[in-house]
Design a protein that fits this description.
The complex is a heterodimer of chains A (about 475) and B (about 400). Chain A has two domains: about 1-325, Peroxisomal Thiolase, Chain A, domain 1, CATH 3.40.47; about 345-355 and about 390-465, OB fold (Dihydrolipoamide Acetyltransferase, E2P). Helix content of chain A is about 25%, strand content about 30%. Chain A is built from twelve helices and 22 strands. Chain A has helices at about 20-25, 45-55, 80-85, 105-115, 135-140, 190-210, 225-235, 260-270, 305-310, 320-325, 345-350, 350-355, and strands at about 1-10, 15, 35, 65-70, 95-100, 120-125, 145-150, 160-170, 175, 185, 220-225, 275-280, 285-295, 315, 355-360, 365-370, 385-390, 395-400, 410-420, 425-430, 440-455, 455-465. Chain B folds into two domains: about 10-115 and about 215-235, Peroxisomal Thiolase, Chain A, domain 1 (3-Layer(aba) Sandwich); about 140-210 and about 235-395, Thiolase/Chalcone synthase (Peroxisomal Thiolase, Chain A, domain 1). Chain B contains 13 helices and eleven strands. Chain B has helices spanning about 30-45, 65-70, 85-100, 140-145, 145-155, 160-175, 190-195, 260-275, 280, 295-300, 310-315, 335, 340-355, and strands at about 10-15, 50-55, 80, 105-115, 200, 205, 215-225, 235-245, 285, 375-385, 385-395. In chain B, the strands form two sheets. A nine-stranded mixed beta sheet of chain B has the order 3-2-4-7-1-8-11-10-9, with helices on both faces. The radius of gyration of chain B is 20 Å and the shape is globular. The chains are: A alpha+beta (about 475), B alpha/beta (about 400). The interface between A and B is large, with 47 and 37 residues.
Chain lengths: ~475, ~400
Amino acid sequence: MRGIISAGGYVPYRRLDRSEIAAVAGSGGGRGTRTVASYDEDTTTMGVEAARFALRGAGSARPDLLLFSTVAPGYLDKTNATTIHAALRLDEDVTAFDLNGSVRSAVGALQLALQAKQPALVVSADLRTGLPGSADEAGNGDAAAALLVGDDSNGTVIAEYLGGASTTEEFLDRWRTPGDTRSKVWEERFGETKYVPLGEHAWKRALDAVGVAAADVSRVIVASSHARAARSLTGRLGVAKEALANDLSATVGFTGAAHPALLLTAALETASPGDVVALVTLADGADVLFFRATDAISSYRSVRPLAGQIDNGAPIAYGKFLTWRGMLPTEPPRRPEPDRISASVTGRTEDYKYGFVGSRDQASGALHLPPARVSRVGGAQDDMEPVPMSDVQGTISTITIDRIAYSQSPPIVFAIVDFEDGGRLPVELTDVDASQLKMGDRVEMTFRRLFTADGIHNYFWKARPVRG
Amino acid sequence: MSSHGIKDRVAIVGMGCTPFGEHWDKGTDDLLIDASTEALASAGIAKEDVDAFWLGTAMSGMSGMALARPLQLVGKPVTRVENFCATGAEALRGAAYAVASGAYDVAMAIGVEKVKDSGYQGLVGAAKTPTDGTTRTLTAAAMFAMCAPAYGKKYGVTDDEMRQVLAHIAQKNHYNGARNPRAQFRKEVSVETICNAPLMAGGLGVYDCSGVADGSAALIVVRAEDAHRYTDTPLYVKALSFVAGNCSGNADPDYDYTWFPEIHMSAQDAYKQAGVTDPRSQIAMAEVHDCFTPAELLIMEDLGFAERGTAWKEELAGTFDLHGELPVNPDGGLKSFGHPVGASGLRMVFEAWLQMRGEAGPDRQIDTVNDRKLALTHNLGGYPGEMVSFISITGTELDA
């Protein structure tokens, strides 16, 4: 039996209230909220967060293959999946590939993983941009999702893959030229006339291939950037109304490449044994995948349920949102901008920088962040063992706010964090409002992009408050 | 470990110090020429009479040639040193130890910094060492701001009380600087103004932070037995101590940001070298590194001027005021002078040079020098948890 062993969804902390848009942009907006990636997040960092949740929920199962998909990669030419690979501390014989560029690449990566032989971690993330007042700006959202796919010899399968079908056709519905920060779309009706029959054909062929009747489907997920086509197709699938999954458009928005796996993750968090879940996506064709929840799903617990993450957001003002997305440049602090990081220094400190691995002196037990060769207690030399710290929580020992130092989103909130079982790090906080924090508060580590210089993204860890 | 010191083996026989400030019309070379010229004249010698030179600068030049070229020193050994904000003090250590060793008869220590050419307010880093981007890029203000709440929590000082204590430190130092013609800021500032100033970092406002300035200071050292050839009133070196921190404070959960271990250790060493047993009663004045007001508060305890947990009360009681029991920063401190990194350590010694010899002028001469013969200067460089600490003790009399 092959299927999904574990699923992790990640939505960023900030929410844009769509009703704020029109007052500034003159048009656009709407009801509800969309999720907003922080200024220090990109598709790679959000992918890391989702993948960490998925692996923490996977027991001892680990991937031999890592696939990463996004429409908005941090790098071109260079592989982005290798950064996720490093942050997860995967072994060097675990292969990492990007399948990037189009929304459809994500569901393609999932299909490849389901057809592969080895356990595979399928990570998808998107950071959805659009011009002020556009439908994409209001209707889209930022998120990531990760699915660990494998056989029951690799781990406990919670949702068996039953099979599926795809259709493909070349037509222009939406497109983006490399380098642009926005996509453009053709008249909506044209796409609808293409997508609905493509979806119907794939749906029928998939039902036949799997041997399931539409009425027996417990949950149907329809994910598409073309909302109107998705609605039209949904009405023709022949499934019960109560089987339709919430598409999260009211709270999160359409999250591009991340959306299929995000909605599947949400569905699995509430599925019961025997439930048949259909994942339907419309993007340059149609893809239909069927899963059946196994008995093991009754004992499966998501590490960080999506419902809780969606409920635990905090608002961001529209002006700040525009600044974070580069749509509204504001005056930076009058301090020097950071220098680019060194490739060779980073090469020597990869375990610490990407994996947040410290060291513990075996003689004294003293923990060192960053890892050291000579112990600060007792002075023993080269007697250290590595200690992964990324999943260890800490406490704020003391805290400060820097209104002067360079930041993409001043002021910097900074704390001395003391970790459980020893170790201390002075570290920047994120996803916080400074006035909410006090000494003694608990924090957890999160992978972020500190700054970019000379086109090099400086990825490292920050701390954020532990939330539900 | 042995730290024997060079008590009474070396004497300062001449000093110079430029006004500190925004010298838009002077470059590094000009400042070096001005300070060295004044120091040489003070000792009554020419540059050719100096056997060796130590130049302290953190970011305004590299190598001894940064001094040899503007002064046109031909065939002389010139050493450039750097040790964060103790850079000027490091030049003094080099020159004093060289003379004490017998290698040279006459040496100059000179410090300089030209910081106002960067285009930014505040200090901007000098060294561009390639990194992996994992270390923080906070301002010093934000790091020192963490000490105030930590101290308050440990010793039961309320936020309002702490605000008054820090304001008193700033007000005191500006009061002193207002009377000093070489200071950058020569204006008294009220406690009310200090408390209502815009916040810079944490709870620290503008007046809790020292400014930056351009400046230079220089001194001439000779063997103690030669001192009276140059002046009737030399200042003898009693102690020079230095500790470079191992940066454990930011890795050790037991460190609580209410004291600076490096300063405590260097103070113990300095007192041992100089034979000081009760610093509060034996020392006539202290120049300390008041880069931010919480630093001066904690330094008072690390130097043993006040018991742990009591310096905040002593500050409010005026113990460290210009005419208090033990004047601290009588020249106005970094608060009034600003902080040309390489020059500050020697600027502090310059204040000891003036006050201990009764040359500070009627507006600001302290009277503790009438019955105490020792002055202390202190620099720190770095941040809470990871700093260097330098202390000098000088005196007007040789021990019997």
